[in-house]
């Protein structure tokens, strides 16, 4: 016959092992949650850097379009596609190779800053997320400091800054 003292000791040992196992699972869960938050922050910083790059590409393209206006009165484009192939010239003149996606929202849609006659003066993300980066911007992006949303990061040409364009061969 089984000794009742031995069987109760075995149950106690099993219960202690079970508690240690539960504690290890809880610790692993907390560690994985912390790693997930770090990963999310790294991903968001990468998206911010990509937004700054893409925004500057649009800024340069808008400036190039304006600078290379064939008439005496310089103009900005009426639609973003005009930056891919300038409709004012018979030959192909490009200021962008493609219309970039918004890296923050992942959408093809951009917020457009338009003048009274419909010209596009600038672009911005439509995302209302809060940026991580709040300062230490380049001189061209200095006006982004302290902005509360990515939608507040408006990329517009800088007056007097000369930028190039691409002409198809």
What does this structure look like?
The chain has 169 residues and is mainly α. The protein has one domain (4-167). The chain is 38% helix and 9% strand. The protein has one helix and five strands; from the N terminus they run αβββββ. The chain has one helix at residues 4-67, and strands at 93-94, 111-114, 120-124, 154-155, 166-167. The chain has a three-stranded antiparallel beta sheet. Strands 1-5 form a two-stranded antiparallel sheet. A hairpin with a 5-residue loop joins strand 2 (111-114) and strand 3. The longest helix is centred in the N-terminal third of the chain and has 64 residues, at 4-67. The protein is elongated, with a radius of gyration of 28 Å. The protein starts with a helix and ends with a strand.
Set down the secondary structure blueprint.
Elements: H1 4-67, E1 93-94, E2 111-114, E3 120-124, E4 154-155, E5 166-167
Q: Key features?
A:
two-stranded antiparallel ribbon; 3-stranded antiparallel sheet; 9% strand; mainly alpha; disordered C terminus; 169 residues
Q: Can you count the beta strands?
A: 5
Global mean pLDDT: 86
Tell me the helix content.
Answer: 25-40%
- Biggest beta-sheet profile: 3 strands, antiparallel
Give the uncertain stretches in residue-range form.
Answer: 163-169
Gap between N and C termini? 96 Å
How many alpha or pi helices? 1
Output the structural class.
mainly alpha
What would the principal axes of the Cα set say about the shape? elongated
* Secondary-structure element series: HEEEEE
Work out the radius of gyration: 28 Å
Please report which band the strand proportion falls in: under 5%, 5-15%, 15-25%, 25-35%, 35-45% or over 45%: 5-15%
The strand line-up of the biggest sheet is 2-3-4
Q: What is the domain tally?
A: 1
């Amino acid at each position: 016959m089984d000794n009742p003292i031995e069987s109760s000791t075995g149950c106690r040992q099993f219960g202690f092992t079970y508690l240690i196992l539960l504690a290890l699972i809880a610790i692993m869960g907390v560690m994985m949650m912390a790693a997930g938050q770090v990963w999310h922050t790294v991903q968001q910083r990468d998206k911010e850097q990509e937004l700054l790059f893409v925004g500057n590409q649009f800024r340069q393209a808008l400036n190039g379009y304006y600078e290379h206006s064939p008439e005496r009165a310089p103009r900005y484009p009426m639609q973003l596609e005009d930056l891919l192939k300038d409709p004012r010239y018979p030959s192909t003149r490009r200021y962008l190779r493609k219309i970039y996606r918004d890296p923050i929202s992942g959408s093809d849609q951009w917020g457009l800053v338009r003048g009274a006659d419909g010209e596009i003066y600038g672009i911005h993300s439509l995302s209302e997320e809060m940026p991580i980066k709040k300062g230490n911007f380049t001189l061209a992006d200095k006006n982004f400091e302290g902005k509360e949303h990515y939608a507040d990061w408006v990329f517009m040409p800088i007056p007097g800054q000369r930028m190039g364009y691409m002409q198809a061969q």
